[in-house]
Amino acid sequence: MKKKSKRYKEILKTSIKDKKVGAKEALDLVKKNSNAKFDESIDISLKINLKQSKGGDFNLRTVVNLPNGSGKKNKIAVLCEPEKIDEAKKAGADLAGSDDLIEKIAAGKFDFTKLICTPAMMGKIGKHGKVLGPKGLMPNPKLGTVATDLTKAIKDIKFGLVEIRNDKDGNLASTIGRKSFSSDKLLENYNHFIESVKKEKPETIKGDFIKSCFLTSTLGISFKVGGK
Fold first, then answer.
1. What is the largest CA-CA distance in the chain?
2. pTM of this prediction?
């Protein structure tokens, strides 16, 4: 059995079993426990109701634009027409190209974490979907990665746009910031995230859409949230 560290044993003392706490209290506890030597991420985990009254189970896949950003650094590649490459680079793209970028992708060179594509280039990238899809890199208009306004798309993904999707059991997780964020900014991100998920509830699902919510940090313990 793996031995628990002294740091983790101290954190366990703050554990609250079988009790929900407000979001602000939970975030304060999570921040207090984020005592690793790096800027830990503050993460949210939800269990959502997938059972529809008709049409089979619901699947949620969308993006949430956090008002204070996520603190996560993405390396962005932009696939666009040659005349738009300079625009993409000026907007902050780490990598931008046209047919040359497609050649790199075809060769298996994925030196980026997000790929933005203009609508005109989607026809060329489509055949690489079997490779890009499993890596979560296939551009998708619903996720803000197929765009005509490259400047806005790059800015959104660099600073605040997070992608969320549930697994087959209805679990979904995301980061809502870093321990270096103030409690007020984390709370604002949390509230915005929760409201964004609630808006995705289809009419075919009855009752509560969010069944449970937990907050934690990279190396911390989780707290069950109820109310504000």
1. 59
2. 0.82
Structure tokens at 125: 């990238």
Q: Are 223 and 31 in contact (CB under 8 A)?
A: no
User: What are the CA-CA distances from residue 39 to residues 9, 30, 42, 192, 215 (Å)?
Assistant: 20, 13, 9, 22, 16
Answer for the pair 122, 146: CB distance below 8 angstroms, yes or no: yes
Name residues whose C-beta falls within 8 Å of residue 102's C-beta, 6 or more positions apart in sequence. 79, 124, 125, 128
3-class DSSP assignment, residue 175: strand
Look at strands 41-48 and 210-217 and give their pairing: antiparallel
Looking at residue 142, what DSSP letter applies?
Answer: G
Q: Residues 95-146: pLDDT tens digits?
A: 999 999 999 999 988 889 999 999 999 999 988 999 999 888 999 998 999 9
Dist. CA 2–CA 4, nearest whole Å: 6
- Per the DSSP assignment, residues forming a β-bridge with 177 are 42
Q: How many CA atoms lie within 13 A of 11 on its CB side?
A: 21
